[in-house]
Amino acid sequence: MHVTLISPGLIHQKGDPFGGIPAMPSGLAYLAGWLRHKGISVTLIDAYGEAPLKAASFREKYIVRGLSLDEIIERIPAETDLVGVGVHSGSQHHRSLEVINAIKESLGLPIVVGGHHPTILYREFLQKGADYVILNEGEVGLEKLCYALQGQITFEEVPSLAWRGGGPNPQ
Prior knowledge:
The protein has seven helices and ten strands.
């Protein structure tokens, strides 16, 4: 099993000199460490961290800093079985959906979303492209989702999982 975790980039309003304060995707880095400790291989793609000086207009009023959609997709290893997208805040909402749908269209891989924002709006993320949403803390839920995708356990046994046609499973 190979999981690719993605931080979708930095979003801020055009003309806002104080917007877009970068932060390391520490939550995704922690998840990567947890999965590796459990024997699951992981690739981490930090779209902002890999191209911090690259900027593009986004939804007329915003700027996205970091890798383009094509560059994100190019970095996803061929052996990937599951893609995880971390959505820390509402400012990443639309960009995350773009990333999800671009990956779905290009690679057809299953996608799990997690973070503060999708925990609250899990139904919308499921309706707009995500296959799974891990609610609240993600370590155990993401690990168990990997086991479920391998047929080792059922989706009902995955704690804090919402999925199309089921969930949420608020264990």
